[in-house]
Amino acid sequence: MKNSKPYPCPPSVGRIYPPLASRLFGVWFRHTRVYTKNIFSNGLPPFLEPLLFLAGVGLGLSKYITQSMEGLTYIEFLGTGLLMTSAMFTASFECTFGTFIRMEFEKVYDGMLAAPLTANNLIIGEIIWAGTKGFFFSFAVLCVLTCFGIISLPRGLLAPFIGFFTGLMFSVMALLVTSFVRTINHFNFYFTGFISPMFFFSGVVFPISNLPAYIRPFAEIIPLTHSVRLTRAVCAGQYHLILLLDVLYIIAFILVIGFFAVNRLKKRLVY
Amino acid sequence: MSPVAITVKNISKSFGKVNAVRDLSFEVEADTCYGFLGPNGAGKTTMMKMLYGKCTRGKNGDGSINVLGYDPASNELAIKYLSGVVPQDNNLDEELDVISNLMVYSRFYALPRKAATSRIDYLLGFMELSDKRAARIRELSGGMQRRLVIARALMNNPKLLILDEPTTGLDPQVRHLIWDKLRQLKRHGTTILLTTHYMEEAFALCDTILIMDKGAGILRGSPGELLTKNVEKHVLEITGSQTLETAADGATLQKVRIDRTQETTRVYCDDDQLLRQLAGGLKDARYFLRQSNLEDVFLKATGRALNEKQ
Question: Which of B51, B77, B179, B275 falls between 20 and 30 A from B235, CA-CA?
Answer without folding.
Answer: B179
